[in-house]
Amino acid sequence: MEARPTKVAIIGAGAVGTAIAYSSLIRGVARTIALMDINTAKVTAEVLDMSHGLEFVPRADIIGGDDVSVCADADVVVFTAGAKQKPGQSRLELAEATIGLTKKILPGVLEVAPNAIYIMVTNPVDIVTYAALKFSGLPNNQVFGSGTVLDSSRLRFRIAQYCGVAVQNVHAYIVGEHGDSEIPLWSSASIGGVPLLDWNPLPDGEPIDSASRAKMHDEVVHAAYKIIEGKGATNYAIGLAATRIVEAVLNDEHRVLPVSTVAKGYEGLDDVCLSLPTLVSRSGAGSRLHVPMSEEEHAGLMSSAETLRKMQEQFGL
């Protein structure tokens, strides 16, 4: 029997939402891509623009509109909608407005796509994910955030660049908050099976000492700020990262990705959303891997959790 056609719905037709839609089309992620936004003219134009390129991508349809009905029966819903920052508005105020928007939009989408896996991408993603879990009442596996999938990709790129190897041969994770308190797991990082801390430089290369690791960590933490300063938003890499998470769900890959979930079973982490390497499959976010950590890394993860816990309390979550 032919498999049932798959559908991905994306909430928000801004820079990130359209990047996810575009990369999903190119990679042939689903048979139908649905884009929803309250700005009717914008979402209509984005759908039309991408429709004109359907000849050049794997067979798919792209639809869009300003009503939640466009998301009906979606297998995966990717949430990118967020409040726009107003002049003089603080980051905390912006986060509060985004949480309010999430609370307003989610119920309608749940009505038309109750069985979908919900992937939250809107920042601050860990807080928004925790709020979505509270508002929706869905189980932890069905609602999770993009977390540090992008941050880990940035770290792997920087390590690959520094060591002169292909990024696909680098395995390293960022855990904790998707933000300033995130933690790189140097102790479990590797290149082609060689532990990163034992890596011998290639000819003309430099050793990966504590100073170079600290520099790479700083570059990853501040990467988004640098991109936003130059072009106003980060969209391409997060578009690819979110699309990769969607693929892992729809293809039932059981792929290990550092997505943001409530880490039940981890002492000190069972009441906060943060990122840990997690099995992602058709049922959503599954088991978390107990990755070995140094004492310093573990302390950093606990500190990151406390940072997020305090933010949750500020928003009454």
UniProtKB/TrEMBL annotation:
Positions with a binding annotation for NAD(+): 12-17, 37, 42, 82-83, 121-123, 146
Quote one Gene Ontology molecular function term.
Answer: L-lactate dehydrogenase (NAD+) activity
Q: What is the regulatory mechanism acting on its activity?
A: Allosterically activated by fructose 1,6-bisphosphate (FBP).
Q: What is this protein called?
A: L-lactate dehydrogenase
Localization in the cell? Cytoplasm
Has keyword Membrane? no
Describe the function of this protein.
Catalyzes the conversion of lactate to pyruvate.
**Which residue spans traverse the membrane?**
none
**Residue sites binding beta-D-fructose 1,6-bisphosphate per the record:** 156, 171
Q: HAMAP family given for it?
A: Lactate_dehydrog (MF_00488)
Source organism's superkingdom? Bacteria
Gene this chain is encoded by: ldh
List UniProt keywords, sorted A-Z.
Answer: Allosteric enzyme, Cytoplasm, NAD, Oxidoreductase, Phosphoprotein
**Root EC class:** oxidoreductase
Q: Name one GO cellular component term.
A: cytoplasm
Q: Does this UniProt record's set of keywords contain Oxidoreductase?
A: yes
Q: How does it assemble?
A: Homotetramer.
Q: What is its main location?
A: cytoplasm
Q: Which family does it belong to?
A: Belongs to the LDH/MDH superfamily. LDH family.
User: What Enzyme Commission number(s) apply to this enzyme?
Assistant: 1.1.1.27
Give the originating organism: Gordonia rhizosphera NBRC 16068
Where, per the database record, does this protein carry Phosphotyrosine?
225
Q: List GO BP terms, alphabetically.
A: glycolytic process; lactate metabolic process
Pathway as given in its UniProt record: Fermentation; pyruvate fermentation to lactate; (S)-lactate from pyruvate: step 1/1
The residues that the entry says bind substrate are 85, 91, 123-126, 151-154, 234
Q: Which reaction does it catalyse?
A: (S)-lactate + NAD(+) = pyruvate + NADH + H(+)
